């Protein structure tokens, strides 16, 4: 025996095999393209989703840095800065001094006054794009949003006069010269103004400002070691318990949320997608190469006979796979990246939140995609390599002559189209399983997408985000910057006369205090004994002050009829008629922190005496215990307080405040668009600082949010279905080619073409039935994780619509292949083998 050592010879043989199997190679290349496209789309989409979520969180929390430390004293700031200058892993840092808040009656924004460098300005997305940062005591830099609110032209050198409230509460009017500005964000009510460090030092020296005003924003050279770097900074500076958070240097909230995976795609989801893609690609490539090797088994046997080793035959098969991969993977990488970029708006779709979209184009995306695609091809050809390496010349001849009768089938099937189809499938059950699994994966994907979509109900979402069709307020993310009296009597009158509104409602708010009766003190003593340590130091200090003064804060709220109807009652619901008499109040009950269900602040029938800021005193009877939904209630954390609800007329009469905190509007059914247009034209165009939530906008966001399941699930199912159909086509075509002689002999002994075609169609239908059963089992296993409510039947509508399409394919492909085979006569087909 002479070994074939020449690499050129092996390459020549590889090219010959590729030429022989051109049709199958085209399907293999297409399968590789689809597989690499899916991998690239997955990695591009996951990377883009991560970056988009990160950028969204940066804008949301107004921070661009990796780590922060806030509200340090001057001495602590010097220690922090000394360490930041010394360590090598810090790329840059910014120093920020908070001086106070500029505010005024006619100024719609809360303008924070800071002194800082360019890095601090970049961290807050507030670096001047026109002009520069302040350098002298009389200079200031602000956004165009602030300039527009003050009616000042966008031009450096303009004078700006601001009432500045420094940290001791005193109000000082300051005049500055505009030295720089940038485009402001209309969405955010947080606005920043930069002054010089000389101005800051002067204010600090005047003792009007608290010393804990120094903050630092830090960027690291390597984002993969943020946690380790923060630990090092805290150890070196000794500031591990300093700053506003009490944690010293800490990761910025944008990076903390991004790294935790909140709002993005989880590692488990990526792993699940990888497995599905790898399995789908494996099934078709495996089938193609196995069929190819078995059809060429006589040639491999002859090569073995002339001296080619099994190792060299493996190499020939692998070289074919590499050539096909070299042709398919680059196309798949390009197509997958384009698909991933196009899907970014769909992937980042969220409810009630504006998201940034960022495209990920890191070389690792293409490296990982190519690696997983090659891994899929490698795993797919392992079996084909073994078959080629182990075959002997005699066995190759036997397999080539009659591949369908390697094993005797002991089962007896009826002599019919269906029986013969079952007999043929039992002899090729491995191929059948592969085809059925390919189609089943696609059908299961459709079912999973349908189940996920059915889990999202607009009513559930609207109940979560809306208390009415439309809501209007100026409540920001923190109470410090909220306007609790934004809905003026003029705005209320405008809303009340809206011809398209069914009802309007209002909540009013003021802060009052109440002398604690003994039962209320005991309730809070039990609550604070259990939870005060969890709340933190600030609330411990607050409770000590409240306990010493015996005066507990009251969140005093006036509510109209439309709001009253949404109260969550602890006992029996009260009537509006009794409540609006002005003799009763409703008090909230301990919600999250009561020690047991019998605890209460005030119970039905108790007397409650209110002493208002005006000095007026009035005693009420507690009508019931109840609480407003979060969307209508005071939206900020007040862990030690009592909420007292009174009718809106009583609230206005006792406080003299006739401006509401929040307005809700329910439209006449079908008139939602007109109500929104009415509010926009008469209210929002005059004041764009209102927080306006709309059922129409939410529905639009909801549909866009659901589109990610429709589009991603649909596209994935389509590609997987295409792979399954290709597998079915390839299996059917090669089966007919390898059975030409057998089918010709059946026709020669009297079987009609119609019967032969029926047998082949039944085979396709059996494949389909098997795929449907597999998909049903996989769907059942997946759906078991959802036990809270039944899955509606419409979730399986895409699956049901796919069945007729697959039935047509199961009939059309065998028919087309059979017609192609019948172009040759029976004699010609018998002679060919």
Question: What are the SSEs and their pairings?
Answer:
Blueprint: H1 7-20, H2 22-61, E1 67-72, H3 74-86, E2 90-102, E3 110-116, H4 118-123, E4 130-131, E5 139-143, H5 144-150, E6 159-166, E7 171-182, E8 190-195, H6 197-205, E9 214-220, H7 226-237, E10 250-251, H8 253-260, H9 267-295, H10 297-305, H11 310-342, H12 344-347, H13 363-390, H14 393-401, H15 417-427, H16 429-454, H17 458-465, E11 470-473, H18 489-496, E12 501-515, H19 518-535, H20 537-549, E13 551-559, H21 561-564, E14 568-569, H22 576-579, E15 584-587, E16 607-611, E17 617-627, E18 642-647, H23 648-655, E19 662-667, H24 672-684, E20 691-694, H25 695-738, H26 740-748, H27 753-783, H28 797-821, H29 826-832
Parallel strand pairs: 3-8, 5-7, 13-18, 15-17
Antiparallel strand pairs: 1-9, 1-10, 2-3, 2-6, 2-9, 4-7, 5-8, 6-7, 11-19, 11-20, 12-13, 12-19, 14-17, 15-18, 16-17
Helix pairs in contact: 1-11, 2-8, 2-9, 2-11, 2-13, 2-25, 9-13, 9-16, 9-25, 10-14, 11-13, 15-27, 16-25, 16-27, 16-28, 17-25, 19-20, 25-28, 26-29, 27-28
């Amino acid at each position: 025996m002479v070994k074939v050592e020449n690499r050129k010879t092996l390459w020549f043989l590889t090219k010959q095999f590729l030429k022989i199997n051109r049709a199958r190679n085209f399907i293999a290349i297409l399968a590789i393209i689809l597989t690499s496209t899916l991998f690239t789309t997955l990695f591009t989409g996951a990377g883009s989703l991560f970056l988009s979520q990160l950028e969204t969180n940066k804008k949301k929390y107004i921070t661009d840095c990796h780590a922060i430390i806030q509200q340090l004293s001057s001495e602590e700031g010097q220690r922090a800065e000394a360490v930041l200058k010394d360590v090598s892993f810090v790329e840059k840092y910014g120093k920020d001094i908070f001086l106070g808040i500029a505010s005024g009656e006619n100024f719609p924004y809360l303008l924070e006054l800071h002194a800082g460098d360019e890095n601090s300005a970049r961290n807050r997305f507030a670096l001047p794009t026109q002009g520069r940062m302040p350098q002298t005591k009389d200079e200031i830099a602000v956004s165009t949003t602030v300039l527009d609110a003050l009616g000042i032209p966008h031009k450096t050198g303009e004078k700006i006069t601001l009432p500045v409230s420094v940290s001791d509460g005193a109000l000082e009017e300051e005049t500055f010269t505009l030295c720089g500005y940038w485009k402001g964000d209309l969405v955010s009510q947080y606005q920043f103004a930069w002054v010089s460090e000389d101005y800051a030092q002067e204010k600090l020296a005047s003792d009007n400002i608290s010393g804990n005003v120094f903050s630092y924003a830090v960027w690291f050279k390597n984002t993969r070691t943020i946690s380790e770097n923060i630990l090092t900074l805290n150890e070196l500076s000794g500031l591990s318990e300093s700053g506003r958070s009490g944690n010293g240097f800490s990761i910025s909230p944008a990076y903390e949320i991004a790294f935790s995976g909140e709002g993005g795609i989880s590692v488990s989801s990526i792993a699940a997608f990888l497995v599905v893609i790898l399995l789908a690609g494996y099934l078709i490539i495996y089938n193609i190469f196995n069929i190819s090797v078995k059809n060429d088994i006589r040639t491999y046997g002859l090569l073995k006979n002339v001296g080619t080793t099994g190792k060299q035959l493996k190499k020939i098969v692998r070289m074919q796979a590499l050539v096909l991969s070299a042709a398919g993977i680059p196309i798949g990488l390009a197509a997958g990246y384009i698909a991933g970029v196009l899907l970014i708006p769909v992937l980042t779709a969220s409810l009630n939140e504006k998201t940034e979209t960022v495209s990920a184009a890191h070389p690792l995306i293409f490296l990982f995609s190519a690696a997983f695609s090659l891994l899929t091809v490698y795993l797919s050809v392992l079996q084909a390599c073994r078959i080629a390496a182990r075959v002997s010349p005699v066995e190759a001849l036997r397999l080539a002559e009659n591949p369908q009768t390697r094993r005797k089938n002991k089962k007896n099937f009826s002599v019919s189209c269906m029986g013969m189809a079952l007999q043929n499938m039992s002899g090729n059950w491995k191929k059948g399983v592969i085809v059925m699994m390919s189609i089943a994966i696609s059908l299961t994907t459709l079912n999973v997408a349908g189940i996920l979509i059915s889990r999202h109900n607009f009513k559930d979402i609207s109940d979560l985000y809306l208390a009415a069709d439309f809501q209007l307020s100026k409540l920001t993310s923190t109470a410090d910057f909220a306007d609790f009296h934004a809905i003026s009597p003029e705005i209320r009158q405008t809303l009340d006369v809206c011809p398209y509104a069914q009802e309007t409602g209002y909540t009013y708010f003021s802060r009052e205090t109440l002398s604690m009766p003994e039962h209320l003190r005991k309730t809070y003593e039990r609550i604070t004994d259990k939870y005060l340590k969890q709340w933190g130091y600030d609330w411990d200090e607050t409770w000590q002050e409240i306990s010493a003064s015996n005066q507990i804060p009251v969140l005093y709220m006036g509510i109209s009829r439309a709001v009253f109807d949404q109260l969550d009652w602890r006992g029996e619901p009260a009537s509006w008629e009794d409540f609006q008499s002005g003799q009763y109040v409703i008090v909230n009950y301990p919600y999250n922190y009561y020690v047991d269900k019998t605890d209460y602040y005030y119970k039905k029938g108790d007397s409650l005496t209110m002493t208002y800021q005006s000095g007026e005193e009035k005693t009420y009877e507690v009508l019931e215990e109840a609480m407003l939904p979060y969307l209508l209630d005071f939206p900020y954390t007040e862990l030690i307080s009592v909420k007292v609800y009174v009718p809106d007329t009583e609230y206005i009469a006792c406080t003299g405040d006739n401006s509401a905190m929040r307005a809700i509007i329910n439209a006449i059914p079908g008139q939602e668009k007109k109500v929104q247009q009415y509010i926009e034209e008469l209210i929002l165009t005059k004041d764009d600082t209102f927080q306006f939530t709309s059922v129409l906008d939410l529905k639009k966001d909801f549909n866009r949010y659901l589109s990610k399941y429709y589009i991603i699930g649909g596209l994935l199912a389509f590609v997987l279905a295409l792979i399954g159909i290709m597998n079915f086509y390839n299996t059917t075509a090669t089966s007919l080619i390898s059975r030409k002689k057998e089918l010709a002999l059946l026709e020669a002994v009297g079987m009609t073409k119609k019967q032969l075609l029926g047998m082949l169609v039944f085979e396709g239908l059996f494949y389909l039935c098997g795929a449907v059963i597999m998909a049903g089992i996989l769907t059942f296993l997946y759906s078991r994780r959802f036990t809270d409510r039944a899955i509606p039947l419409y979730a399986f509508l895409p699956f049901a619509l796919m069945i007729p399409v697959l039935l047509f394919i199961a009939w059309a492909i065998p028919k087309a292949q059979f017609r192609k085979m019948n172009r040759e006569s029976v004699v010609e087909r018998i002679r060919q083998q």
